[in-house]
Amino acid sequence: MRYEWSSGGYDYLQSAGMSPRNAAIAGYIQTFGRKSRATGFRESEPYTILDAACGLCPIMPFLPQDSMSRYIAFDNSQHVAEHIPYKALKCFEFYHLSFEDFFEDERFTVKSFDFVMYLGMYGGYDVYAERLKRLLPYAKEDGYIILEAIEEHIDPVKEIMSQQYPDYEVAAACNIEIHNGAMSHLTRERFRSINLYYKLS
Fold this sequence. Notes:
The protein is an alpha/beta fold and 201 residues long. The protein has helices at residues 9-13, 19-32, 78-83, 99-104, 125-135, 151-164, and strands spanning 47-52, 68-74, 92-95, 113-121, 139-150, 168-177, 191-199.
């Protein structure tokens, strides 16, 4: 089982202590979501988001609903499938799927999302490499990838992106400190690193 989701992990990610993390990610989406790279001016069209291994989508409360035309989220957790709170929203679609099932599902097409998010990355180098290889193509050519990892997983993620995807560059990044050792009995994390990538033209 994913360590984040045991012992109250879902509540943890939606707690006040994690609100800076959630707000920072949402801030990146709102800042870059309607800005044309070519002109620098904001566009009127709502943006589309793919949230991989979404959990209970703690970023959603920080995003204006009218700013999104489609928010696709998938997670293999039965708990998430039963308790995710946004199913009534017109723009929101949740799918109870594993990574492997999502990649094989023909309802979802590559190059169709303004933002592809993989937050709270877990696993190991080989897992990251395989998932990123298959996730990145879902972003539009002028779209963005948002990756977040806890401290011990940051270096492998950055190594994969720099070595295997040299045509991607960091547009914005920050580290969010986890105060008072939140969830330290499970993760021993001190901070999380949030990185927003875009593909060079």
